[in-house]
Amino acid sequence: MDNFALIGTLKDYADSKGWAFLSGSNAFRNYESTRNNYNTNQLILGVNFTARPTINNGHITEIRYPGLIFLGRKFEASTFSKLDETFIQKYNNRLKDLMELLTNAVIDFACTNELEIEGLILDYELNQFDANLDFVGGNITFIQ
């Protein structure tokens, strides 16, 4: 992966999996999520990263990319999702599966792009954006 190419490389990864991709701050991710017509069960990868290069003797020796990574799935009412669904129903119907999918995707992405992973902390992000999507995800740092 080229220096500072994390966002584009993540988009390419999502595209290769057939996943929708949302990037930028919460406002940009919300805007994009409402513009897209997701297919039932479509996975959605959301990211927001910064770059912290270490420079020694005029050369970049390391780049740390702290940020957020989320994986959600579009569901229709007929495929489990209901407004009155309890947390444990959400967990059983999709959150546990999404947690595993995201963890495996992060590992695959890091290995493929020769990145280290530091500080992966995942949580459940429910009813996000105006599109009312459920995600799993949270903080991560990739090191190049």
Tags for this model:
144 residues, elongated, alpha+beta, 3 helices
Helix/strand layout:
Blueprint: H1 6-17, E1 20-23, H2 26-35, E2 43-49, E3 52-56, E4 59-73, H3 87-112, E5 116-128, E6 133-143
Parallel strand pairs: 1-2
Antiparallel strand pairs: 2-4, 3-4, 4-6, 5-6
Descriptive report:
This protein is of the alpha+beta class and 144 residues long. The chain has one domain. Helix content is 33%, strand content 38%. The chain is built from three helices and six strands, in the order H-E-H-E-E-E-H-E-E. The protein has helices at residues 6-17, 26-35, 87-112, and strands at residues 20-23, 43-49, 52-56, 59-73, 116-128, 133-143. Strands 1, 2, 3, 4, 5 and 6 form a six-stranded mixed β-sheet that branches. 26% of the residues are buried. The mean pLDDT is 88.
Concise synopsis of the structure shown:
The chain is of the alpha+beta class and 144 residues long. It has helices at residues 6-17, 26-35, 87-112, and strands at residues 20-23, 43-49, 52-56, 59-73, 116-128, 133-143.
Tell how many strands the DSSP assignment holds: 6
**Gyration radius, to the nearest Å?**
16 Å
Structural class: alpha+beta
How would you state the average pLDDT, rounded? 88
- The stretches of 5 or more residues where confidence is low (pLDDT under 50) are none
Main sheet properties: 6 strands, mixed
- What is the helix/strand order? HEHEEEHEE
**Whole-Å distance between the termini?**
8 Å
Supply the number of helical segments: 3
Q: Strand fraction band?
A: 35-45%
Overall, the morphology is: elongated
Q: What is the number of independent domains?
A: 1
Helix content: 25-40%
